[in-house]
Design goal:
single chain; alpha/beta; eight-stranded mixed beta sheet; 18 helices; disordered C terminus; binds guanosine-5'-triphosphate; binds magnesium ion
Length: about 600
């Protein structure tokens, strides 16, 4: 159902206001998902569904049609005798009673023929189809017109609340939520059970109008059991609920109880039907209670939705952190000398030579420049081998950190159930780097190297003809720049260690400074390092997005949380300002024809 229910057009102003506030509440509740499996979320998911149902099935239609007959739903444990009671009240078999539990699967609504128009699918319980035959279909409401039912009051026989069949339980809950009045049937054998009391507690919390029938009670136990039950009702906030007792007796061939067994209930219902004021009071009590409880429970759903937002934020934060760290770590390791070991260092030393040149580095720079030029003008070793070593070293470094980040992100998701379920539902192995990550990292490193080459080429545009530039070539100067980047935050040793590890970079620096000047070298190295970081960030972003896209499938919009609270507050404001639009007559318990013990 969207928008306003049928018949909303000619409503009094206050009712129309309340109605639109409740429609907004319905939209807000229907619009918020609780997709993340945080602890206790199932309870709130059920609550949300039940609240939407109650708004659609009861509150909205009832508000629009305040004169509709009072809907009495007969609920309770299986075998308590609900169908038998309904049949006996009507005086004929309208609902099949049975020995096999549970018996009633399809709800049966009995009404006076004059009231037929009130019970079409546009009005009450719009989610259920209508039928005039017994079907056993839980999705269909069987309508039975019978003059024995007083005008203004209808009786609905519901499935059992404690059924072994989940569909029965759900339907019974939905039907009771659509009732103006519960006729709650329990038996001497079952009245202390937990499930019925759960329902009765909810009714008390919501001020739903309830009458209780203690059914199938052995005559000798009536006094004791009904006394005990009455005390339990009082303790649980249902002191004002009428309590009827039906003694266990033989049923007729048709499965009916003798009329006098149900006479007290029958009289009470007739009186209620005949007194428009009393009826309105019952409707008001239940409807008011439902609206109050819906507003209150909406805040609980909003809390649950806010928890979803927080959880999603936390899960997102874990992933962001893992990959931010990965970028930082690669950035740090590609500048602190870490890469100037092993293969890279060996190939670099091979390129620049380790003999005289290194030993003479301690002497004056000008002299070194000349020596370098002299040395390089011989047969320069291949810069290409350094490039290859750099490529593989850098690629390994990036891959290692991508693996670590995936593992860290996955581990922190696994530590909470919401994250665990997301990982399972994704059907992907997010705890490792993507399968094509190595290939992508390789490409990124090559692109970076190419970028460094271009940088050197551009910088050397007007120097290309100089002897030094020619001596090292674009390739040689590029690898020198890479090496300088790799040691750009390392403490460059002086003295004996020169040429080893970060010290090897000093040579590169001298080479570059000899060609470009020291300022340009600092600038080029900063640029090259920033470019590498950008490319690593892009790689890691794609990895991070694998997690985030999974998280996006379970996103809760923080605006939805606000919408819930605003809608609930609006309903409460109208209610508290006395502009509820609910029937005006004050609830008159005194005018209610029932009182404790009348049926015993
Ligand atoms: N003798 C006797 N039998 C009863 C009485 N009430 C119910 N029964 C029998 O108990 C069985 C169950 O009664 P139902 O009226 O079908 O019970 P129900 O509460 O509708 O059960 P579900 O539809 O399964 O929830 C049937 O065989 C009835 O004939 C009673 O007061 N006396
Ligand atoms: Mg039944």
């Amino acid at each position: 159902m969207t928008g306003l229910p049928t018949g909303a057009a000619e409503l009094p102003r206050a009712t129309a206001e309340m109605l639109s506030a409740l429609v907004a509440l319905r939209e807000a509740l229907a619009g918020v998902g609780l997709p993340l499996d945080v602890p206790d979320v199932e309870e709130q998911r059920t609550a949300r569904r039940e609240m939407v149902d109650q708004l659609e099935n009861y509150v909205l239609p009832r508000l629009v049609q305040i004169e509709a007959p009072l809907l009495t739903v007969v609920g309770g444990s299986t075998g308590a005798g609900k169908s038998t009671l309904v049949n006996s009240l009507v005086g004929r078999r309208v609902s099949e009673p049975g020995v096999l539990r549970p018996t009633t699967r399809s709800p049966v609504l009995v009404h006076n023929p004059a009231d037929v128009e009130w019970f079409d699918a546009q009005r009450v319980l719009p989610g259920l189809g209508r039928t005039e035959r017994a079907t056993g279909d839980p999705g269909a409401l069987q309508l039975v017109a019978d003059p024995q039912v007083p005008e203004g009051l209808a009786i609905l026989d519901a499935p059992d609340i404690d059924s072994v069949e989940a569909s029965n339980r759900t339907l019974a809950t939905e039907l009771l939520a659509a009732a103006d009045l519960w006729l709650f049937v329990t038996s001497a054998a079952r009245y202390a059970d937990q499930v019925p009391w759960g329902f009765l507690k909810a009714a008390a919390d919501r001020s739903t109008a309830v009458a209780i029938v203690l059914d199938r009670t052995p005559p000798e136990a009536v006094e004791e059991v009904s006394g005990h039950l009455a005390r339990m009702l009082t303790e649980r906030g249902l002191r004002d609920s009428p309590l009827f007792t039906v003694a266990e007796s033989a049923v007729t061939e048709d499965g009916l109880l003798a009329p006098e067994q149900v006479a007290a209930i029958r009289t009470w219902l007739d009186a209620l039907a005949a007194d428009a004021g009393a009826r309105a009071a019952v409707v008001k009590q239940t409807l008011d209670g439902a609206v109050r409880s819906l507003a209150r429970r909406t805040h609980e759903v909003a809390d649950a939705a806010a928890q979803q937002v927080d959880t999603a934020r936390r899960l997102r934060g874990d992933v962001e952190r893992a990959y931010d760290e990965a970028v930082d770590e690669v950035d740090a390791a590609s500048a602190d000398g870490t890469l100037l070991r092993g293969e890279v260092l060996a190939r670099w030393q091979e390129f620049v030579g380790t003999g005289d040149l290194l030993r003479t580095l301690e002497t004056k720079v000008g002299w070194v420049r000349d020596r370098l030029v002299g040395w390089m003008s011989g047969r320069p070793p291949s810069a290409e081998r350094v490039t290859v070593a750099v490529e593989s070293g850098l690629e390994t470094l990036i891959l290692e950190h991508a693996e670590n980040a995936a593992e860290r992100a996955e581990r922190s998701w696994r530590s909470v159930s919401a994250g665990q379920h997301l990982l399972e539902d994704s059907g992907r192995d997010l705890g490792r780097a993507s399968r094509d990550f190595r290939a992508r990292a390789e490409r990124a490193v090559r692109d970076w190297q190419h970028g460094v080459l271009e940088m050197v080429r551009t910088e050397g545009a007007d120097k290309r003809s100089t002897a030094r530039f020619l001596a090292f070539g674009v390739n040689g100067l590029s690898v020198a720049l890479m090496v300088v980047v790799f040691a750009s935050t390392a403490a460059i040793p002086t003295g004996a260690e020169v040429g080893v590890g970060a010290g090897g970079a000093l040579l590169g620096q001298k080479l570059l400074e000899a060609v470009f000047g020291d300022q340009a070298v600092r600038r080029l190295s900063a640029l090259a390092r920033a470019d590498l970081r950008t490319r690593v960030t892009e790689l890691m972003d794609a990895e991070r997005d694998r997690f985030l896209s999974v998280l996006d499938t379970a996103a809760v919009d923080p605006a939805d949380v606000d919408r819930l609270r605003v809608a609930a507050r609006r309903v409460d404001d109208l209610r508290l300002a006395g502009r509820s639009g609910l029937p005006g007559r004050a609830a008159a318990a005194a005018s209610s024809p029932g009182s404790r013990g009348t049926g015993a």
